[in-house]
Amino acid sequence: MAQRSNRQRCDGGEVMHLAIIGCGQLARMMALAGWRLGATFSFLAEPDENTSGVDRLGTVVKRTPELTGQALFDALGQPSSVTVEREHVDVELLKTLQPFCLVAPNPDAILVSQHRGREKDFMAAHGIATAPYKVATGRANLKDAVLHIGLPVIIKTCEQGYDGKGQWLIRDSQALEETLSDIPDHVECVVEGFVNFSKEVSIISARSSSGECAYYPLTENEHRQGILVSSIAPADVPSESTLQQADKIANTILEKLDYVGILSIEFFVVGDQLVVNEIAPRVHNSGHWTQSAGIASQFENHIRAISGLPLGETKPKTQAAMLNLLGKEVDETLLNQGNLEIHLYNKSLRPGRKVGHVNLWHIDRAPLVKQLKELHQQVYGDD
Amino acid sequence: MAQRSNRQRCDGGEVMHLAIIGCGQLARMMALAGWRLGATFSFLAEPDENTSGVDRLGTVVKRTPELTGQALFDALGQPSSVTVEREHVDVELLKTLQPFCLVAPNPDAILVSQHRGREKDFMAAHGIATAPYKVATGRANLKDAVLHIGLPVIIKTCEQGYDGKGQWLIRDSQALEETLSDIPDHVECVVEGFVNFSKEVSIISARSSSGECAYYPLTENEHRQGILVSSIAPADVPSESTLQQADKIANTILEKLDYVGILSIEFFVVGDQLVVNEIAPRVHNSGHWTQSAGIASQFENHIRAISGLPLGETKPKTQAAMLNLLGKEVDETLLNQGNLEIHLYNKSLRPGRKVGHVNLWHIDRAPLVKQLKELHQQVYGDD
Prior knowledge:
Two copies of one chain form a homodimer.
Chain A: E1 17-21, H1 25-36, E2 40-45, E3 59-62, H2 69-75, E4 81-84, H3 91-97, E5 102-103, H4 107-114, H5 116-125, E6 133-137, H6 139-149, E7 153-157, E8 167-170, H7 173-182, E9 188-193, E10 199-207, E11 213-215, E12 219-224, E13 227-233, H8 240-256, E14 261-270, E15 273-280, H9 298-306, E16 319-326, E17 340-344, E18 354-362, H10 365-380
Parallel strand pairs in A: 1-2, 1-4, 2-3, 4-5
Antiparallel strand pairs in A: 6-9, 7-8, 7-9, 10-11, 10-12, 10-14, 12-13, 13-16, 14-15, 16-18, 17-18
Helix pairs in contact in A: 1-9, 2-3, 3-4, 4-5
Pathway (chains A, B): Purine metabolism; IMP biosynthesis via de novo pathway; 5-amino-1-(5-phospho-D-ribosyl)imidazole-4-carboxylate from 5-amino-1-(5-phospho-D-ribosyl)imidazole (N5-CAIR route): step 1/2
Organism (chains A, B): Pleionea litopenaei
GO molecular function (chains A, B): 5-(carboxyamino)imidazole ribonucleotide synthase activity; ATP binding; metal ion binding; phosphoribosylaminoimidazole carboxylase activity
């Protein structure tokens, strides 16, 4: 079936027009990066989705049952490529667009990441280390799985969980029965053995429709209650081999999934080994620092990758960090610091909600660590 | 008359909404900078104005005779501030908005810059050096003025000229009669004596609605046929006192005009002295490098200034440069260079048309100069 060329340049009126499934801050920031490259955008919104982040940044199309295939392609303005800002999308709908334009990442790659069990099976099939795991549904099966894996465990719903939702931590057998009773009886879950990690890191990797790959340095991440609070890069890891593992794992996944776009992988660091926690078929919160490090950001590289353009620089010349603004308004004094950049998402303030982030950078790590800590204190106080 | 507060933050749903008169690339880039700070935008377009640069980046409002005052304020979405991307705007129309929101820069400041004679009179009144000049209309008066100033001269229309249009260079008396016959007989002109300059430089300066001022380093500019081709900063000038003069002149103009926003001043360098060429009440082509120097760009600082936010860092930590893309499409190999950033305007390609620019940076000047030269060769060949 005919595929529309995904390489369009600002040449005699031809404009690169791209569509994004989703209207959140990741869509917003991909569009802002793409605008600079001369692209225009349309966004597909669920009927009840908040579109404040992208309203007036492109054409917002509300999803209806009739909008599939050609009709959807036309409503989206006949994009050269369609991409996603979240893994939880209707893969069947995406497949109906494939005769008309590039869908990147491809629906099968997205499918893998939509289900934690499927994702871990994929890793196992390709020799990539994950936490010990077992998929189970229903309390009896879950209990068996827990005893098989061995406490402590984290139980997660296989589908739809994010930012710490749909997860249950069971440290000891006393908590076991009580926690199991909290878990819906019919929902497929994965039981994961605890990984005794020293750090959590992630890698943002890119693969273009031409097959070209690029890797950002490992990022070190701090979470609180399952939500990312801050990141710093390059990560401080004990061994060079750890860094090489990350690139290798990323490369394997990119190639095996015939992946196009940005792929994000979260790891646990155990000694000098990396254990995959989860992947996301999209740009990632832990990669926002790439906007302010004098390189092509993850957002820009995603646009380049899905448009068949050469990938941009991924090796930063400074250290960089990011602090999430979770339910916190911006203090204008933050704007006064020279090596700091604020990114706001135009979302209304709610406790714990991701309303923006602050990027900072410094040539040396120690001062950056110090500044990040002070910034955290300034924004969150002693919380 | 009640003034709406121009300080709005992303706080509980309140969003900073700004309006820009104009839909060109300067409006586009101000909006892209402002989006990151959580602002939204509307744009006022002349009836026949090309809006491709900003379509879907905000609400585009087509100007009609009924849209003045309250009607215009409402059509623009009740912005907290209204600003401009060009000096050639309807100042009377801007004044009708002043009861409803901040108009920055103020209409009187814009008026000064709209007329070359008025602009030079303003400089003279405040002890700021310009080229020797005389305003005249009609060939007889122009001839008198030319003889009074002394050849060689440049004759420019007092209003509406830009990028080298509406200018006539007269080197010697043989060219005088012939060139004078080219100049429309009824149009007010200014006759400027040649300035024997070593370089052309410019300064991008900022003054916030709070009165806070900030200055970017001097930029060195190369023109061809009156159009900016490339810039490099900080400018290489023979004396520290030259840099201080620039800040002092900028400060004088900012204060005397009670100016809010970015003010751009172009100078001739004569020995270690600065002679003002012209000013622009807006962001400027020679300041695009500020987007890629790890500081708050001129676009961001303009948004901050008109919103009463603290001004951002203006002192870059690297050398930076910019090459205009004049009627040239982007060669994708340009995307491969690590210290280079492309900005496209979504304008269709026409000979000599500003369709985008490329920013580049380096810690040292010599390699940057070399790279800029090679880039110029790559884009323009031996043109």
